[in-house]
Design goal:
By secondary structure, the chain is an all-alpha fold. Helix content is about 70%, strand content about 0%. Strands 1-2 form a two-stranded parallel ribbon.
Length: about 300
Amino acid sequence: MALLPAERVVATGIGAIYLVDAVLVAVRGVAIDWAGYAPLVSVGLGVLALGLFYRLRRRDPNIALAAVSAGLFILFTISVSVFNYLLLPVGPRRVDGLLMRIDALMGYSWPDLVMAMSATPVFGRALGFVYMSSLFQFVLLILTLGLTGRAAELHRFLLTGVLAVTLSILFWFAFPSSGPSAYFDIPVDVISRLGMVVGPAYGEELNRLAMEGVSLISPRDVLGLVAFPSVHLVMALMAVWFARSVRPLFVLLVLVNLTMPLAVLLHGGHHLVDLFGGLAVFALSVALSGRLLSGSIRATDAGGAPLGQAAG
């Protein structure tokens, strides 16, 4: 089999999500923008195929490792994005009121944070770039771990990501929330000064989706639906955690992500308690991925080929 044991675990999980997507599409009668998703799926499959080609031809096991992982990551991102939208609508059962009361007990108010940050707009805008860097960090990490042959770290990173995002979405579906941006108005000039990624207009759309759902799912209109737990914080923690074996990259990601919690609150329109939820999901997913891959990692050598084939 061209896929390594850990990759098969990840691919099986991704395949299961696509199967659930197909069932939900049929049951709910939601239309899919096939023309919009086709190029994205083609890119994922193409990168995966490139990796398998390099592995089977024994051209370069590290390129194969990076490409296979990148292809799986792309395919997972598409599948889970569609899955999240297929869970809409969630109706009026959102728990934002409870989360805001918990925030208040900790002395946190999102509109107060936004207004305070508007006094330092340059810093506020810089936080927007930090917030938007999460996917780039993941791509950089996948390529670095893959091209340096760190198969064990890369595979555990992939499985942790699959588990963390899936668990976050399932928890959000059980206890849905939209974040404070869906409930507070912010002056237009403040939004402009800070270059806010998630503002009241974004929140209004989240409110509409929560109540009405969607009739068409398209990659052109996808928004981040999950507020609690914070997926962005999970991604930041994952990036730092799994970069530890590559010191220059680790230092870089630590420096970038030092301000990620503040960026998530400001530009992600999050409750403070969302961060604690993200931390819990990250810790649980890291522990689960370690247990699931404890055997399969030993069947993978550092160069990214199954041990039984390495000398063939």
